[in-house]
Amino acid sequence: MTAAPEAAFDPEAFRAALREWYRNNHRPLPWRAKPGLYATVVSEFMLQQTRVETVLPYFERWMRALPDFESLAACSDERLLKLWEGLGYYRRAKNLREVAREWIRRHEPPRTATGWREFPGIGPYTAAAVASIACGDPSACVDGNVVRVLARLTGWAEPLPGGGAAAKLFQPLADKLLDRDDPGTHNQAVMELGATVCRRQKPLCLLCPVNRFCRARASGTAASIPRLPLKKTETRLVIRIWCRNGNRLLLHRAQPDAGRLANLHELPTAEALGLDPRKLPETARLLIRKKRAITRFIITEEIHEHPVQIDPRSVKADAGLVWMNVNDLETVALSGPHRRWVRELLAPAKPG
Ligand code: SF4
Predict the structure, then answer these.
(1) Which residues contact 240 (CB under 8 A, 6 or more apart)?
(2) What is the pTM of this model?
(3) Tens of pLDDT along 99-155?
(4) Pocket around ligand 1: residues whose beta carbon is below 6 Å from it?
(5) Domains of the chain by range and CATH?
(6) Each residue of 226-269: pLDDT tens digit?
(7) Residue 180 Cα distances to 21, 142, 174, 186, 255, angstroms
(8) Is 118 a catalytic residue?
């Protein structure tokens, strides 16, 4: 059995150094400027698997449009997806609305991480973040950032287990280091350290406020810790069709039960149009080829212009296919990459 990571330093001295650094160096993020339960919940959902810089404009827009749990609970699917469009992992938006509805149903919302775990879409990390930041609950947050900081502090040279096992491995140490008098600030400080100083690539050890406690720094191994489990990747090719009829563009709207893409519009796949992606007509012209990674999949998407005009009347609504006026595209929710690709393809050609 693997021994638990342990700190060979005084937790109080560590907390004090971290607290002092955070007080003077934290980024002035909008959810920190006006803290509150709702702002904390929204920001924590948006920040799941998403960088702060990406979240910033979304957060501001969201808070103007849906300033409280009540307005979020009453928000329609269309509006919700439109506000979330481009942030990805769309299930988060639906779960966030479910949280608002559950919050309203309860007369007394929870104040502990254990209580927040009962809400939809809230895992151990988000529960600890919300409960500690907004309610002062002494729960330590452990996500990938925190694991990295703790692994380096303890010089943890063993390969990390995959999935949520690494967070579980470091949870006892995070609990031990937690500042129980101000758990919200402490959690934010560790996360801020991981995001801005103890970065995945090129950690800034010289500037680090806790470098005197750090084993990885002392042994010169910071850059090689943590040792992450190898990801098994799979490649996929998706053929999509650019089908335009005058001012109208053919899109596919995913069914409401289509998981992460539910109700979002995308360019249709060849299969959705009854075409065999391996046998497109020779006249089908490749317009663009894009590569992206989603979880463990490396997906190449090719968008081909279809040479045959498809009669708008032949497209059945129950197949999820819709003709959309290109001037109205901004009013519907497209998935983030498709929004970019459609804009790129509709942009007037630059004079050569
Ligand atoms: S000294 Fe370097 S490796 Fe250690 S916690 Fe600080 S930034 Fe991370």
Answers:
(1) 266, 267, 268, 269, 270, 301, 302, 303, 304
(2) 0.79
(3) 999 999 997 889 999 999 999 889 999 999 999 999 999 999 999 999 999 999 999
(4) 149, 152-153, 197-198, 203-205, 208, 210-211, 214, 216-217, 222
(5) 11-224 (1.10.340.30), 234-346 (3.90.79.10)
(6) 998 777 889 999 999 998 888 889 999 887 766 667 778 899 99
(7) 18, 15, 11, 9, 46
(8) no
